[in-house]
Amino acid sequence: MTIWPLVVAAGVGSRMQADRPKQYLSLDQRLLIDHTLATLLGYPRFEQLMLVLSAADPYWPASEFASDPRILRVDGGAERCYSVLNGLEALAELAHEDDWVLVHDVARPCLRHSDLDLLLADLQLPGAILASPTRDTMKRGRLAVDGSVEIDHTVERDQLWHALTPQVFPLGLLSRALKQSLADGFVVTDEASAIEHLGLAPKLVAGRADNIKVTRPEDLALAQLFIQQARAVSTTSNNPE
Question: Does the reported pTM lie above 0.90?
Answer without folding.
Answer: yes
